[in-house]
Write a structure and sequence with these properties.
The protein has 3 helices and 13 strands. The protein is mostly beta strands. The protein has one domain: Jelly Rolls. Strands 1, 4, 6, 8, 9, 11 and 13 form a 7-stranded antiparallel β-sheet that branches. The chain has a 4-stranded antiparallel β-sheet with strand order 5-12-7-10. A hairpin with a 2-residue loop joins strand 2 and strand 3.
Length: about 200
């Protein structure tokens, strides 16, 4: 086979594969979002107190960010790049994703939830290890300032509305020491998982 023809076929297959992957991004059977755009690890800086740092914005307009993979951000004189990641379980485990143990750090996780129609009156189930802050479409909907282990639906935020089209979730998670994890899903009024949306890694 001509090497140019082979190269063209390979490129076409790659494009198709990427399209299929993009179309197949969905929550898992329990509704947990497993596909995220990640920025980590970010040092906590002068104060290592997670309760203090979760109140601050480590990057400008953190609730309104819309990153894509490869974009670079400078935080505390450290340049980091956004990466696409997939959780191996219902929660993402940042130390495992990064391949190293990290303490006194934070991460930004962003997901783009795409709905075919408005979905009002949902609940957002959140778990984190440790502190967490969540924004939906630029508005803060949740904040946790203590230390804990991750679990399914440690907190449930009610009266959550997803709009038709793209909804942006910004999930900030701080780790003081040991495990560094987070989990997020949507539930209906009867606490049943919502799985009828798609997930994108671009706005």
């Amino acid at each position: 086979m001509n090497r140019f023809v082979a190269a063209a076929i390979c490129a076409a297959v790659c494009l198709v594969s990427r399209a299929v992957v993009a179309q197949d991004l969905k929550p898992d059977a329990e509704g947990f979002i497993r596909d995220w755009v990640m920025l980590a690890p970010i040092p906590l800086g002068e104060s290592n107190a997670g309760a203090e740092q979760i109140e601050k914005s480590q990057i400008k307009d953190e609730g309104a960010i819309k990153p894509t993979e490869g974009e670079k951000v400078k935080v505390l004189d450290k340049e980091l790049a956004w990466q696409n990641v997939k959780a191996a379980d219902y929660h993402f485990d940042l130390n495992k994703i990064l391949g190293s143990a990290n303490s006194d750090v934070l991460a930004y996780m962003v997901a783009y939830v795409v709905c075919d129609a408005d979905m009002p009156g949902l609940k957002m189930g959140i778990g984190s290890n440790d502190q967490a802050r969540v924004y939906l479409n630029g508005k803060e909907v949740f904040k946790f300032t203590e230390t804990r282990t991750v679990d399914k639906d440690s907190d449930k935020v009610e009266k959550i509305d997803l709009k038709k089209g793209v909804n942006v979730i910004v999930f900030k998670v701080i780790n003081q020491e040991n495990d560094w994890q987070g989990a997020l899903r949507f539930l209906d009024k009867d606490d049943k998982p919502v799985t009828t949306f798609k997930v994108q890694l671009k706005p």
